[in-house]
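Backbone shape codes:
***
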Amino acid sequence: MAPPTTQAPPPRLNGLALHRRDPQALHRKPKFLLRKPAETVWGYIQDPHIGMPVCDDFEPGSGEDCSSESSSSFQADLSTKQRKMIGPEAIFFHQGAYHSRLKKLVQASFLPSAIKGSVSEIENIVLKLLPTWKNCTINTLQEMKRYAFDVAMISALGNKQDLEMEGIKSLYQCLEKGYNSMPLDLPGTPFRKAMKARKLLNETLRRLIEKRRESGRHGGGLQSHRSHFAAHDTTASVLTWILKYLHDNANLLDAVTREQEGIQRKLFEANRGLTWEDTRRMPLTGRVIQETLRSASILSFTFREAVQDVEFEGYFIPKGWKVLPLFRTIHHSAEFFPQPEKFDPSRFEVPPRPNTYMPFGNGVHACPGSELAKLEILILLHHLTTSCRWQSVGGEDGIQYGPFPVPKRGLPIKVTVRKKKEP
């Protein structure tokens, strides 16, 4: 990392000193907290005496420096509670050659060659799910979690018995509640229950993996299988936002429907279901997904820890302090995305500038399951837009966090059968 050009020694970040200068600093929105003379914006600075030492980083270039594979100054990290919840064996916490080998093993199960064969299985899940929505009021987020989890189950473990699926789903729900709770390791608390659920979940997955191997069906190890399930919450959140944005942009919904109807006609003529190649011929729908990932920024930030004292962007960051590259702020910068508050998929007709669009994170710890997530979203949207329409129920706008940002109350909608227009 190149040193700053300034000859003056860099200032030392100190949350207590900042708090003494401005008692309201810790309660403000991060981007108003601290500015360098060159107007580079830094955020929430916290001293170890207050809590975990953290500074927020909003610069697109520095986001690359913090999370790129070539950076030797920072490593991936999470809060103490998240470390305990995920477990020390998680791929996220490993570095160097071991991490590279582990990541290759995990990525192998998410390569196009590995997930191409899942298209028909995912489509079958959709075809069974949609009839349960028609002429009903559903909670979009919860239904999308159900869908994403079923896809993860099929993708990771194949066709399992309903009893096994429900058991694993129950453990993950317990884990999710604990992940979003206060880290109180006391009997009866969501955190304690979640820690027990994590142990049982690992044991269950190991047992199922062994059964697969004994039957001659080879698959990934525990890390690979956990990665399939880990992303189902984010995928559900993205799908919920897509339905919200399409609902609010009727002309865009009609355009996506026309694209999908063109594919539907070819399927009818050939008397077949969707294939991997069909999902590669959905450019507008793909841009809708891209713009949703930018606008909603489900992955708002990531943790990085300074592994040594670092002189970074004109500041001194002590070893052990956390740096949070804020992807949301970059995604909503008017410099990189004009009119960032406007939902406009056409902006992705031209590829974005490097290091300005990072919906799945960046560097060696970027989400390995992004292609599977896109695939299951495309398959669902193909069938949903061509057969259904939906109307928001309650009229309550807003955002809630749990922990990912989603429309308020999980976006309740009334789903109806689409009346196709006469040719």
